[in-house]
Amino acid sequence: MYKILYAEFIAPNIKKFRIEVPKIAKKRQAGQFVIIRVDENGERVPLTISDSNIEEGSITIIVQGVGKTTMQLNELETGDFILDVVGPLGKPSHIENFGVAVSIGGGVGTAIAYPTAVALKKAGNYTISIIGGRTKDFVILEDEMKEVCDEVFVTTDDGSYGYHGFVTQKLKELIDAKRRIDFVLAIGPIPMMKAVAEVTRKLKIKTVVSLNPIMVDGTGMCGGCRATVDNKTVFVCVDGPEFDAHKVDFELLERRNRTYKKDEEQALSFYTCHSNETILNSVESEIKK
Amino acid sequence: MEKLSNKERMKIVRQSMPEQDSKVRRNNFEEVNLGFTEELAKLEALRCIQCPKPTCVEGCPVGVKIKDFIALVAEGDYLVAAAKIKEDNMLPAVCGRVCPQEEQCEVKCVVGKKNGPVAIGRLERFVADFEREHVGIRTPDLKPRTGKKVAIVGSGPAGLSCAGDLIQMGHEVTVFEALHDLGGVLIYGIPEFRLPKEIVKAEVESLKKLGVDFQTNAVIGLTDTVDELLQNGYDAVFIAVGAGLPYFLNIPGENLNGVYSANEFLTRVNLMKAYKFPSFDTPVFHCKDKNVAVFGGGNTAMDAVRTSKRLGAKNAYIIYRRSDLEMPARKEEIHHAKEEGIEFIYLSNPVEFVGDKNGWLTGVKVQKMELGEPDSSGRRKPIPISGSDYIIDIDMAVIAIGNGSNPIIQKTTPDLQYTKWGNIVVDESTMKTTKKGVFAGGDIVTGGATVILAMGAGRKAAAAINEFLRGSK
Ligand SMILES: Cc1cc2nc3c(=O)[nH]c(=O)nc-3n(C[C@H](O)[C@H](O)[C@H](O)COP(=O)(O)OP(=O)(O)OC[C@H]3O[C@@H](n4cnc5c(N)ncnc54)[C@H](O)[C@@H]3O)c2cc1C
Ligand SMILES: Cc1cc2nc3c(=O)[nH]c(=O)nc-3n(C[C@H](O)[C@H](O)[C@H](O)COP(=O)(O)OP(=O)(O)OC[C@H]3O[C@@H](n4cnc5c(N)ncnc54)[C@H](O)[C@@H]3O)c2cc1C
Ligand code: SF4
Ligand code: SF4
Ligand code: FES
User: Fold this and answer.
1) Which residue of B has its CA nearest to A260?
2) B107 partner at 20 to 30 Å CA-CA among A57, A267, B347, B415?
3) In whole angstroms, what is the distance from residue A169 CA to residue B4 CA?
4) Quick one: closest CA in A to B278, which residue?
């Protein structure tokens, strides 16, 4: 059992947790993730380690509620427990002094890009970050990014805050303005990562993306997380999760992530109607009293 | 023991195993074999002629005192019989169920020459179940504590048996397991209908009672490295991480939706309980009324195909490159699979998976094979017949052609010696690796093998570790 030391929503549906796992806090490097299982009947879901605090012995994860497990997780509060946390999994990000490094985060992808941006800065890069959200409410970690990056650009799809447009448009502007860019890290929804890869491909700017296939064990044992990179099969949990954006088969990743679409919907509706039942029951017992 | 002449004993027929009817069991995950009753066990035990030189023992990789324990069964002394088996085999309830007895102990039984061998495995299972159900697994006395600490990496049969021996010898033992549950392949691979998880849990519980410390969610190499274990106060390390890297066929279409490795399919169903979805959150392909093909001919392939049938598959095929004679799976499992309606397609080699425009599997193109000359393994090598390709319509595929070694340990412990397949090199008599204080055994050393061999390796290592620890005061 792993104790939640802190839990707070930082955006609609996006919650930040600090969980007590001293070993992982000490060990983890940028780009690595954990797999958690909320309870006995739970699924194993991968979540990036966004930060850690060695003194407190905690890791930070930032979770967007998109389905049964992430929504269930986001109902947990400070003081609650999570049944299983395993890690740090995956290869650490490849960090070096590239020169000018741009970290792009779309939605909750910003939480995944953040630790790598920190490491890029530490390695001596001039760091720029572009963080995007659908609307102002969905922009996360702006202050944290500002603390570590030399420049931060915020974009919103609806123009409610910062630059009106997609992260890729901002990236293009920087390129058009002849800004020097030596390295790009892009993390977010698959269409966004694909779009960034297309922008940087022609210019041959080294670009890395973090892939998010469906995983089970996270140790290379099942092969469920396989993806195609450079026409070869890789196991994302041990060979990645970061890969050369120009070589990733994004269509395949998107397709494989749809494998359990119907089940995911069913699990969610099963979950929500059961929680409604619990609420109903408690209301009924209140009335009886 | 009842006074029967050998002639009379030889007249008793081999008692068959009571089992769930095949039409019923293909729809549930409950155990297929129901186990001997006391009467059946006694009768079967009477078939043993108590050979002065029992050849059966030679067939058992760990030398279970078969003749002695069977004599005790015949006398109704089941608990003493259980203790007798446990002198050599820590996991009789498991081995009695899954050992390939027909090619180990039983094939060497002299009675078998005429009538079918004494059912050693079934008796072993009976005795172990009797003990567990009547008095619980009994824990032996421990030697005085030595203050030495051993880290065991992996909780499969090799790790569990090593832990059991070392704790009895007086050492402190911690078992580190990457997954959230304990037992290795026994828990995530072999299905419930062949090995109820309750049995594995009972074995683990008895080790906990003895004082073995289990740490789940610990991937050695990542959470801690082998070197860190040695630096953090462990005096020795036993690596028993199994053969956990699924091989794929490397043919086009293998990443289509609906194509699984056996490890993934079985882990989803067994460990994550996907057969109980949505009460359990992990889904698996909906086999109901679908066509499923499993590629391979070993125990893993049989487990996968029979699982798909239980999940409701309309047609469930085994597609195997060689002929039935070369199939490595246990005869009993093949027989059970056939009874459950599994179709076997021999001498067929998959060359391509085909899918629809949404990326879902729709079929497999296979090429017919014929058998040529025997190869280095002594098996006749299959040769493709050109122009014989045809497509079998399938909705799900499971690839069960074996496992390689998981590279996490190798990458993080480069100063051990490995074979070119990534197996750890050890001295076979002591399980010592080339690194001081580090031992290894089970599938990570041999490649995919058997439960009893892994268990034997764990015990051999325990003896060597004990010697190492007592020598290094
Ligand atoms: C290495 C890695 C790191 C990740 N880090 C984070 C993180 O830091 N924060 C975070 O919020 N999420 C992260 N994810 C995604 C997260 O694991 C999934 O959102 C989660 O597994 C969904 O589970 P669920 O049961 O809530 O939803 P499900 O019911 O499984 O799915 C609901 C919806 O989410 C989509 N979905 C399913 N699986 C994934 C996936 N792997 N990635 C993206 N969408 C998915 C489905 O298509 C479906 O539409 C990461 C994924 C990987 C592989
Ligand atoms: C589906 C299937 C059916 C089988 N049927 C039979 C049968 O009928 N009869 C028979 O005799 N044999 C059978 N076998 C083979 C038998 O199960 C194995 O030979 C045996 O389990 C090997 O034992 P082991 O202890 O070496 O490894 P495993 O049982 O593989 O256990 C290794 C454990 O180590 C853990 N681990 C891996 N890496 C790490 C790490 N870095 N850190 C921490 N922990 C780690 C794994 O999660 C696993 O729990 C079958 C195998 C399979 C897959
Ligand atoms: S351990 Fe296996 S091989 Fe040995 S006697 Fe028992 S069933 Fe036979
Ligand atoms: S070989 Fe057969 S008959 Fe002889 S002791 Fe062994 S089990 Fe009994
Ligand atoms: S999640 Fe199983 S191999 Fe990657």
Assistant:
1) B283
2) B347
3) 92
4) A267
B161's CB contacts (< 8 A; 6+ apart) are B90, B91, B454, B455, B456, B458, B459, B462
Q: Which of B245, B255, B267 sits opposite A256 (nearest CB)?
A: B255
Residue A32: C-alpha distances to residues A48, A184, A216, A241, A248 (Å): 6, 18, 16, 8, 19
pLDDT tens digits along A65-114: 999 999 999 999 999 999 999 999 999 999 999 999 999 999 999 999 99
Question: Ligand 3, from B105, B106, B332: best to mutate by most atoms within 8 Å of Cβ?
Answer: B105
Please enumerate in sequence order all residues whose Cβ is within 8 A of that of B110, keeping only pairs 6 or more positions apart, or say none: B49, B51, B55
Quick count: other Cβ atoms within 10 Å of Cβ B370? 13
Domain A2-89 part of CATH 2.40.30.10: yes
Percent of chain A scoring above 70 in pLDDT: 94
The continuous run of DSSP H or E covering B9 comes out as helix B6-11
With CA atoms as reference, report the closest residue to B240 among B453, B472, B89, B87: B453
Chain A residues touching B261 at Cβ < 8 A: 222-224
Q: B408 C-alpha to center of ligand 5: Å? A: 13
How do the domains of chain A map onto residue ranges? 2-89, 100-257
Q: For the domain made up of A100-257, give the CATH fold.
A: Rossmann fold (3.40.50)
Q: What is the spatial distance between Cα A109 and Cα A90, in angstroms, rounded to a whole number?
A: 17
State if residue B162 touches ligand 2 by the CB under 6 angstroms criterion.
no
ipTM over 0.85: yes
Q: Please write the tens of the pLDDT for every residue from B341-396.
A: 999 999 999 999 999 999 999 999 999 999 888 888 777 888 999 999 999 999 99
Q: Which of B222, B300, B398 to mutate to test the interface with A (most CBs of A within 10 A)?
A: B222
Instruction: Tell me the pLDDT tens digit for each residue of B192-242.
Output: 999 999 999 999 999 999 999 999 999 999 999 999 999 999 999 999 999
Instruction: Measure in Å the smallest separation between the Cα of B272 and chain A Cα atoms.
Output: 7
